[in-house]
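Quick review question:
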């Protein structure tokens, strides 16, 4: 055994409460080093009488260096003390909080307790990360309001470009508004969408609205607050939830308090709302105040300041409680202090305990996912892995599996179950363009997204074949001319969404890779829940493949592959979703 490779950390993604009665425990070992790994757990106050309960741990993932094991336990008294035992041939080694112990010490409770068991002292319900369960069933649809539909020409900005013929630029407008969304809700219902994610709708000067002028007011070119309430109500009537996008890291240059600082300098009562390095305020060419990146039009807010905090927390409450929205997506969330987010969560969850709090963070986000801040984050590492395997053909199946397993292990399961899985957005090239206009590769990426754990999000227009390069080309107006829409692609999305919604196993069932070999371009994985089981075979390669299935009989749920007994065949760049009978 290579003992140096063994790793465990209590109260982390290696040991966490899944719910108030269940603990998940993980441990890492050298790859292919152990025959068996056991979790030994007990009530620390009763170890002398009852001894340990011994549970064999299941290998849940492997990468090039390590194996990862997991077990769960439901301690009767919600107290949990534990250690590990490793078996390799005739070797047996234990590990507790202090280090490694011998076989002989296993039988001496006094020694074990004295030398330090790992502990989960008590499963306090308030400490458990409890994301809203509806997110497991959500199919998100991202709308960039300025480009989805123009339902009210009376509120158009001056000199808007042609909806059908204009070219998106960084600073032009097309007249999209909230009424345009209301007018096209039936399109989303037909597709199967049950939650809309809006990029910012608050008053701002740009077309993207990430430079907020007034957080309490809908941008007048989009409508007004009453219309926003009407939109939310109509969405709810159709079974669609609404998530708004907010920027609490920074405001826009024309935000009232910042303009007061610009005009009054050090005498402004708002000077401490921002990080002003010197007066007078200078924004160009290099701002003398902290900003988002180095963008002078986006001064950074001091969320540690009591007045700033009070204002922004009222914003958070108002749109959830008064307007009825169902969640927040939080821009540049990792640059705001943790204490603000803790108070933010308390305010939002008081207004609506089932509200979804989603952070935009591009790196490992565990510090924000302890149950006191966010429910989940945007799952960009998974996004990149899907694109690199299915669309760009730059990694093989083993690398793809390794990357997804790494992200799975980075967070507790209750976070992974509600992770936000997107493939493109207003910040990236469109999915079809990323796939070099290859619809087969696009369908592979979307199929994996719609059969993977977490909540999938479709960027507006992807479902009807819209393409576009990086910002601003990815922000073209929605195509409503039915003759220019790809109806076959729409039907594909509709079918996959319906399949996901009709089968819990594809939404929040267990996920296991069955085949993902080095150098290979095909994968096989399994989803299961409540006795239902699906096996999905996906071929991102240029040659047909035949795979051996787990024992059982299967029928084709969707896709272009075939099944014959224990074999499934899939042509190049195709997939098949098989349901076990």
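Suggested answer, residue by residue:
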């Amino acid at each position: 055994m290579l003992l140096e490779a063994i790793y465990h950390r209590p109260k982390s993604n290696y040991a966490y409460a899944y719910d108030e009665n269940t603990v998940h425990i993980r441990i890492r070992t050298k790859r292919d080093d152990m025959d068996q790994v056991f979790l030994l757990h007990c009530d620390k106050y009763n170890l002398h009488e009852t001894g340990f309960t011994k549970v064999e741990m299941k290998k849940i993932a492997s990468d090039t260096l390590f194996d990862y094991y997991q077990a769960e336990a439901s301690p009767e008294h919600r107290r949990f003390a534990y250690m590990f035992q490793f078996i390799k041939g005739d070797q047996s080694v234990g590990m507790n909080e202090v280090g490694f112990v011998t076989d002989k010490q296993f039988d001496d409770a006094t020694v074990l307790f004295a030398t330090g068991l790992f502990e989960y002292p008590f499963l306090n319900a308030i400490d458990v990360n409890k994301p809203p369960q509806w997110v497991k069933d959500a199919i998100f649809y991202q709308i960039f309001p300025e480009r989805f539909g123009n339902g009210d020409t009376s509120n158009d900005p001056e000199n808007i470009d042609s909806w059908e013929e204009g070219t998106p630029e960084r600073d032009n407008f097309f007249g999209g508004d909230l009424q345009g969304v209301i007018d096209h809700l039936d399109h989303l219902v037909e597709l199967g969408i049950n939650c809309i994610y809006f990029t910012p709708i608050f008053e701002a000067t740009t077309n993207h609205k990430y430079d907020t002028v007034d957080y309490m007011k809908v941008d007048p070119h989009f409508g007004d607050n009453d219309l926003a309430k009407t939109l939310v109500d109509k969405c709810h009537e159709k079974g669609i939830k609404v998530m708004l996008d907010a920027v609490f890291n920074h405001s826009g240059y024309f935000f009232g308090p910042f303009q007061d600082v610009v005009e009054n300098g050090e005498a402004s009562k708002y000077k401490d709302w921002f990080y002003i390095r010197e007066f007078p305020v200078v924004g160009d060419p290099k701002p003398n105040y902290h900003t988002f990146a180095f963008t002078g039009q986006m001064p950074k807010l001091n969320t540690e300041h009591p007045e700033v905090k009070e204002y922004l927390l009222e914003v958070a409450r108002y749109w959830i409680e008064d307007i009825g929205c169902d969640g927040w997506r939080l821009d540049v969330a990792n640059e705001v202090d943790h204490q603000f987010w803790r108070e933010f969560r308390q305010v939002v969850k008081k207004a609506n305990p089932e509200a979804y709090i989603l952070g935009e963070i591009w790196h490992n986000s565990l510090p924000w996912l302890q149950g006191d801040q966010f429910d989940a984050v945007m799952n960009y590492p998974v996004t990149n892995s899907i694109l690199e395997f299915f669309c760009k053909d730059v990694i093989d199946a083993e690398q793809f599996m390794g990357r997804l397993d790494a992200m799975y292990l980075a967070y507790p399961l209750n976070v992974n179950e509600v992770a936000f899985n997107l493939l493109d957005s207003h910040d990236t090239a469109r999915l079809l363009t990323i796939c070099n206009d290859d619809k087969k590769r696009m369908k592979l990426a979307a199929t994996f997204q719609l059969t993977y754990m977490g909540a999938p999000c479709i960027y507006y227009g992807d479902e009807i074949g819209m393409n576009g390069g990086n910002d601003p080309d990815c922000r073209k107006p929605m195509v409503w001319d039915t003759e220019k829409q790809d109806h076959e692609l729409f039907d594909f999305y509709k079918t996959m969404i319906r399949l996901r919604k009709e089968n819990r196993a594809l939404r929040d069932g267990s996920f296991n890779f069955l085949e993902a070999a080095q150098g290979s371009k095909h994968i096989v994985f399994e989803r299961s829940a409540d006795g239902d089981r699906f096996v999905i075979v996906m071929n991102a390669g240029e040659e047909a493949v035949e795979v051996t299935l787990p024992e059982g009989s299967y029928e084709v749920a969707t896709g272009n592959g075939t099944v014959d007994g224990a074999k499934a065949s899939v042509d190049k760049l195709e997939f098949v979703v098989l349901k076990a009978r």
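Why it works: The two ends are 42 Å apart (CA to CA). The chain has a mean pLDDT of 96.
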